[in-house]
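USER: Note each token:
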Amino acid sequence: GGGGRAFVCGRLWRGVRGRVLRAARDLFHQQRLLEQQTVEREAQMREMESVNRSLSEALTETARKDEELIASLQRRDESAAFLDSALSSSPVGFAFWGANLRYIRINEYLASTRGLVPTDYVGRTMEEVSTDVAAQVLPILKKVLSSRAPVRDLPVVRPGGGKDGRARQLLASF
């Protein structure tokens, strides 16, 4: 009897010991896996923190640029209002052309010399609105655009441009 019990106990002990060793090995592997995952998660968290800092900096920069843009738009609107006021009260004719030589802006005084209003000019070329002076003025405007050098006091003759139908002599600067 006693040897059989020792045999059974030894077998049981080896079985339990084998399971305990396998469980310990599994726990060790799981612990190493968890440690590796923890290291990876910590690296991901550092990367996310870096991305969050970058996003925060980008948002701050965007907000700063938005404020600058708003201030710039306000200054532009103020300048446009001042220009409109100066042009509308000026006893001298003013016109502004874009690089494509289309009217951008013209004041009431100059527009009225042809019996038109400023909106009749905007977006149109000189040939479309002022055919009688276009041949004299367009080459000068093109030269000013290409050289960026001003031309002052250019005599321009407007045939039949006076109220009495006679030719009108003007001085133009570009």
